[in-house]
């Protein structure tokens, strides 16, 4: 945990430019001596929340008490949200409507499925792969999730293992007792979907490698592994996540790290992704911003949602992603770049978000660094995915608060809203 805490010290020393960028964008941090300038109350919101779930609202299956307090502020007496809220999680081993129902029960207010973004939700945009035969890895309602995303021809790791029993040889108890014959009529696999961490890592790692090394025909062998390999779409690069245990647990990012390392060790080449979704991917935040805008339009709020506040507990996914998205928004407004719309990319609209402020809470992965441990000056290891280069300034949150209730209070004060 001390290593995670050192991120803040490292960023403070090497990422001062980010404070200046936050200030220039109107994202100044909490200053107890000076307080916030509070403007007149607004009848309709011009801001919205992107809320992480694990470590912010819940720990495992237990709701964090501060989350209940936060939603008492966010919900009006009629039981409706006062501002647009989207839940952005890197979890993926659950159905969207199931996660919405779970949040509704825990938070005591209605959460609609279109307010929930799972790590793999943006895969709906990768329509060029929807008609391909894809091997899908993860757990939970894998096939239903894949089909909801648009993939109609999916094969699970268990189905592949059944078709080719000789492939799964690590577990002595599951090894076939006789020499099995592979299915000769098994259609070739055309790509790989990694939706979340599987249960039996050794089986999934082995069979995914078999598919990549055989160009989708794991019952055969090739003298030379094909490269580029079959397309791989992955979601959730979190190395760690927070449940009931005192220390963080391995996330899907750890599984991806294993797969990438094995592939490089075996082939001498890098595993490549056609798409890498979930926080901190800008694509995920674009998707969330589009849902925030649609939510505001449905509620009839006339004011454009120009400011987004992303609340999370993980510096490497929540803070890094929000800050990276803020950079993207600033560049888009300067250069007239494109944003994500229902039909794909389109020209940035005047009603689109202009800023995204990162708010880090201390109820999950992140823990404030012990001042006594800050004397060593040792740099924290980089916990992010290799495809997101280490930029210390992007790891510095615009605001650090104790919990999500303090985050909501901070934003309401900043926006001049009554608590």
From TrEMBL:
PANTHER family: CDP-DIACYLGLYCEROL--GLYCEROL-3-PHOSPHATE 3-PHOSPHATIDYLTRANSFERASE-RELATED (PTHR14269), HALOACID DEHALOGENASE-LIKE HYDROLASE DOMAIN-CONTAINING 5 (PTHR14269:SF17)
Alphabetized UniProt keyword annotations: Signal
Signal sequence interval, chain numbering: 1-23
Pfam families for the chain: Hydrolase_6
InterPro entries: CDP-alcohol_PTase-I, HAD-like_sf, HAD-SF_hydro_IIA, HAD-SF_hydro_IIA_CECR5, HAD_sf
One GO term of the biological process aspect: glycerophospholipid biosynthetic process
Gene (UniProt): HDHD5
Entry GO terms, CC: mitochondrion
Similarity annotation: Belongs to the HAD-like hydrolase superfamily.
Official protein name in the record: Haloacid dehalogenase-like hydrolase domain-containing 5
Keyword Signal part of the UniProt annotation: yes
Record carries keyword Signal: yes
């Amino acid at each position: 945990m001390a290593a995670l805490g050192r991120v803040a010290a490292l960023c403070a020393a090497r990422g001062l430019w980010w404070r200046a960028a936050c200030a220039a964008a109107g994202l100044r941090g909490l200053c107890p001596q000076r307080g916030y300038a509070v403007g007149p109350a607004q009848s309709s919101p011009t801001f919205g929340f992107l809320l992480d779930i694990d470590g912010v609202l819940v720990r495992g299956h237990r709701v964090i008490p501060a989350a209940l307090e936060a939603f008492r502020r966010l919900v009006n007496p009629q039981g409706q949200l006062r501002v647009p809220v989207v839940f952005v999680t890197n979890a993926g081993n659950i159905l969207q409507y199931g996660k919405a129902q779970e949040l509704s029960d825990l938070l005591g207010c209605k959460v609609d499925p279109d307010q929930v973004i799972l790590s793999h939700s943006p895969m709906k945009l990768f329509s060029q792969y929807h008609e391909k035969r894809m091997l899908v890895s993860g757990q939970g309602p894998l096939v239903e999730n894949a089909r909801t995303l648009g993939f109609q021809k999916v094969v699970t790791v268990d189905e592949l293992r059944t078709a080719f029993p000789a492939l799964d040889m690590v577990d002595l108890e599951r090894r076939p007792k006789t020499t099995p014959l592979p299915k000769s009529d098994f259609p070739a696999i055309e790509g790989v979907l990694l939706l979340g961490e599987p249960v039996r890592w050794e089986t999934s790692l082995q069979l995914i490698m078999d598919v990549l090394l055989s160009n989708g025909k794991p019952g055969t062998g090739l003298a030379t592994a094909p490269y580029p390999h079959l397309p791989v779409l992955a979601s959730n690069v979190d190395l760690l996540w927070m449940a009931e245990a005192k220390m963080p647990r391995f996330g899907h990012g750890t599984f991806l790290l294993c797969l990438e390392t094995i592939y490089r060790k075996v082939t001498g080449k890098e595993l490549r992704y056609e798409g890498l979704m979930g926080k901190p991917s800008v694509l995920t935040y674009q998707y969330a911003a589009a849902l925030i805008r649609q939510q505001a339009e449905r509620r009839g709020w006339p004011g454009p949602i120009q400011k987004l506040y992303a609340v999370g507990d993980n510096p490497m996914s929540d803070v890094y992603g929000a800050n990276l998205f803020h950079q993207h928004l600033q560049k888009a407004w300067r250069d007239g770049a494109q944003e994500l719309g229902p039909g794909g990319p389109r020209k940035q609209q005047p009603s689109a978000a202009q800023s995204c402020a990162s708010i880090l809470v201390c109820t999950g992965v992140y823990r404030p660094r012990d001042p006594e441990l800050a004397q060593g000056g040792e740099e924290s290891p980089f916990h992010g995915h290799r495809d997101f280069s280490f930029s210390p300034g992007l790891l510095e949150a615009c605001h650090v608060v104790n919990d999500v209730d303090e985050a909501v209070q901070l934003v309401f004060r900043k926006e001049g809203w009554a608590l």
